[in-house]
Write a structure and sequence with these properties.
Blueprint (H helix, E strand, L loop, with lengths): L32 H4 L2 E3 L2 H13 L13 E8 L5 H9 L8 E7 L2 E6 H6 L1 H4 L5 E5 L4 E6 L3 E8 L4 H21 L6
Antiparallel strand pairs: 1-4, 2-7, 3-4, 3-5, 5-6, 6-7
């Protein structure tokens, strides 16, 4: 059964993924081994799980400007030939480079990757398709609107007791899993 805590076990090699083109260079070559180690193309089962998860907790179904789910948001509009400005703006969101983030495109197409790779390949990842990137803290999300607008929402708030309980359960599951995997040293 797919769980967010184990999702990186449900991957396929990038060279076999139908959307590998997003990470290829202008000559059609895949990234270096260093980059490949930071990009996790998810199989269709894991992709579908993420798609449903995002919908269940309403990460990809609202306008960030409403401030319904997050207290704060920043907006950045850009145009053609602004790749450097986009990368700089993404970098300035102060997400740690090694932080694993999740990105779904369709119910059967999703990726996990480091934030560093999301910035590096931003010109290919953000195209005429509304997209959301988030991490396991669920405390922030990056929304890309197909009209070349980014919204970075942070400081999640909870709308209603039922949603809070659901989110608390998910966060507890993640925390318990992380704690059970920690190595402890005897005193």
């Amino acid at each position: 059964m797919t769980k967010l805590t184990d999702i990186l076990k449900e991957t396929v090699p990038l060279q076999e993924h139908p959307w590998k083109w997003m990470f290829e260079n202008e000559n059609g070559h895949l990234p270096s081994a260093e980059h490949l180690d930071q990009i996790f193309p998810l199989d269709s089962k894991a992709s579908n799980y993420l798609w449903k998860f995002e919908n269940e907790i309403k990460l990809n179904t609202f306008d960030p400007e409403t401030k319904r789910y997050f207290k704060d948001f920043e907006k950045f509009s850009f145009g053609d030939n602004m790749d450097k400005e986009v990368k700089k703006w993404l970098f300035n969101r102060q997400v740690k480079f090694d932080n694993i983030v999740y990105m779904t495109f369709q119910p059967t197409v999703a990726f996990a990757m480091t934030w560093k790779m999301a910035i590096h390949y931003s010109a290919n990842l953000f195209f005429g398709h509304d997209t959301t990137i988030w991490d396991r803290t669920l405390n922030w999300a990056l929304y890309y609107d197909h009209n070349d607008v980014f919204y970075f929402a942070k400081n999640r708030i909870y709308d209603g007791q039922e949603e809070k309980l659901k989110l608390d359960r998910l966060i507890k599951e993640i925390t318990e899993h992380n704690n059970s995997n920690r190595c402890t040293t005897p005193k």
